[in-house]
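#struct-help
A.M.: can someone run this one for me? Single chain, 654 residues.
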Amino acid sequence: MADEEKKAKKINFRDMSICEATIQMLEKAAADGVETSFSRAAEMKPCPIGADSACCKHCFMGPCRLNSKDPYSRVGVCGATIDTIAARNFARMVASGASAHTDHGMSMLDVFREVVRGNIKDYSIKDEVKLRKVAASIGIEVANREVIEIARDLYEELERTYTQVEGEIPFAKRVPPKTLENWRKLGIVPRGAMREIMEIMHRTHMGVDQDYENIVKQCSRTALSDGWGGSMVATELSDILFGTPKPIVAGVNMGFLKEDEVNVIVHGHEPNLFETMIVSCNDPANIEKAKAAGAKGINLLGMCCSGAEVLGRHGIPHAGNFMSTEVVIATGAVDAMAVDVQCIMQALAKLSECYGTRFFTTNPRAKIDGAMHIEFHEHTPRECTDRIVDMAIERFKKRPERIVIPRRKDMGVHGFSHEYVNYMLGGSFRASYKPLNENIINGRIRGVAGVVGCTNPRVKHDYVHVELVKELIKNNVLVVQTGCSQISLAKAGLMKPDAAVMAGEGLQEVCETVGMPPVLSLGSCVDNSRILIACAEMVRVGGLGDTIADLPVAGAAPEYMSEKAISIGHYFVASGVYTVFGVTFPSVEGTKFHKLLFEGLEEIGLGKWGFAKDPYDMAHLMIDHIDKKRMALGIMGERERKLFSMEDRRVAEG
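D.P.: on it. Structure tokens below:
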């Protein structure tokens, strides 16, 4: 570790993050001679050819590397052009990202099926109202029917999301009619996720589809099977089984670790593990075991998207987003970390070994060399979670002498859902998005932006998220967000109602009237489907156009790092939303493929891609697009409004 310590000491970690807790733990890890993804990123430069997606390795005549500075100067061994190569690479990113979310949704559907059949006893249908609403939204009869009958029909209908080979996925019924009409004309309505992902993988095999426009067409179909399919299934069924989130005050950051309690962290994406871990950590028998070991109790925290789910659903504290998953181990205070799927760094196993933390994989899809595997089964979930708690208690007895816990704690309001936003704006009897649409039309709110996604060591951790959102709300753009972005913004104090003072006058007025923050957290990265539903509802309520592409909205993933993000971005683009990414973009500017993504898709009634590294450039790309949409709707001018005093009211009434 001496060489790593020497390298790490050269790094100014304040250039790599704005999170004080993360910086503190990076410095500790460096002093301990332990490397992290931050130090590895500083030592390892990204491949410039790969970053531009100018490399093809789909067969063994290559890999073929094209010149991204002069992309049409040569072709691959098979004759593939830069447009074909970049389109195939992009398509495979979409396929991988879509498969991650659709497989997550399939796991939730498996659990739902077994609950409905009575084979799983540890979970139940907690939100019957949502069950009925979801069923009704896709044409299932709900009047005068028992919950279990509706649930059986819902399972059978949602299964088609994955297995259907012809027709349209069930949640296509939620798409605004004019948007759906355009999809049908373009031939991009998803049939079933398995078919779309299979077809895109076939098309991108060597010697199959070599027309970049045709490849992008299937990209769109596959991405839409994620957003309006697998992701939406995952979100809706999680709410039905575990409860639909409602706003709750909850904390984030490493200060919620406790020196005198057994600290257990759950990290990953599927909520089943975490929901059962809550039960295990609150079991009086397990708490007594912890006390017998000298602890005051058991302290459960979340990380990444598993943490975001329970942060909004139960108010369980969140220790940090993706780029903090390593450094939290460096505190020495984490007794056990249990992970399931997605966004789990392989380095966590070795890092945990350095600090004596017990590190467990739990999902058969995701084992890690060096980690102890305790498989989680939904039919007998406590067998896994109780065992992890037992081992965490054992580790508490053998903690290292030096424990360093950052003292930073940040509070915010989390747990907004489509249903609660509807209620928040209109109340129990007039729940509606109409006040939102009206305030966009009258100019108090300029538009809506979705700021979502990961964190990435190639940019300053948390900085781009925070500065982008500050600039958006300052310009009266209401922000909704999901995933690791939520934690970045919560640490910056942007998830509290009093953050409205940072907003422009119009947005501030709306926030203060409703009592809401200028930034609404909607959950984990799979919960981007909530944003799609919100967009569809804005169209349905009226006054802002007939399609999602007409809306004054935009999206951004300023610090993205995974293929899931590419799939998410493309299902927003295919739905009609201008979507800006940061860090890097996998295409060569000036090529026909790049022009199709950044211009051509909008010309056929969809959204388009954008790219910027600087948060202020990104914000104003989004604001300019929102203004363009306002102009097209004829609502660019701000209506004159007057705030009446009591004296004014008396005069008016007299």
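A.M.: thanks! Confidence is low (pLDDT under 50) at residues 4-8, 639-646, 648-654.
D.P.: also worth noting: The chain has 25 helices and 16 strands.
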